[in-house]
Amino acid sequence: MIGVSDTSDNSETLALFDSYLNESIAILESFEKLTTEISVENIFSLDIIGNSGTLEFAGTDSLNITSITSTNYVLEPIECCGGVKQYIEFDIGYIAGMKNDIWIESEEIVKQLEETLQVEQVRILESISDNNMVYTPLIFQVNTQELLVKITQYLKFIGDNVVTRKVVFTNTPPETNINTTFYISVFEPL
Q1: How, if at all, do strands 68-77 and 84-92 pair?
Q2: Which domain holds residue 156?
Q3: Which of 97, 117, 118, 112 is nearest to 161 (CA)?
Q4: pLDDT by residue (tens digit) across 42-62?
Q5: What is the CATH number of the domain that holds 31?
Q6: Is 164 helix (H, G, I), strand (E, B) or coil?
Q7: What is the rounded CA–CA span in Å between residue 57 and residue 182?
Q8: How many Cβ atoms are within 10 Å of 154's Cβ, its own excluded?
Q9: Is 4 a domain residue?
Q10: Alpha helices in the chain (DSSP H)
Q11: CB–CB of 28/164 below 8 Å?
């Protein structure tokens, strides 16, 4: 079993893990939709963690993205980029994941990120044991839109034991100076 200890009653642990997996899918789907719907050149910041996030972008167009629910919305004038910056706090709904019975170790993910996807720095943190599960946190950054698209697709399909916890995107419009940090957890059997 992926990332779950062998206990007599691990139904709560399995339910918790499933919620992490569904949350991960929702984070990646919402991130992908927002960075597709809004040109990344116009996004100042986009942070998604858990089931909520914040978005700052330049432009006068309103958003109609069904996967997010706005909880706070502010317009303010700025000196560039059309003169309007929008700030949105939002919630995202859970998306039920389809498991593919693929399990991958954190070392293999690091190897794929560095060698295949050309990610320059991947930090592996100490493994954490919590709620009868053990996971290894990984943090890495990407700095191009092309790599951002590849990484998002990679994380959506890499394996059932890989959970995206947080995505932080920053940029400096009107120039394109993308910096995106991904925080993932790789669950392992106890």
Answers
A1: antiparallel
A2: 11-188
A3: 97
A4: 899 999 999 999 999 988 776
A5: 3.30.70.60
A6: strand
A7: 20
A8: 19
A9: no
A10: 11-37, 106-111, 145-157
A11: yes
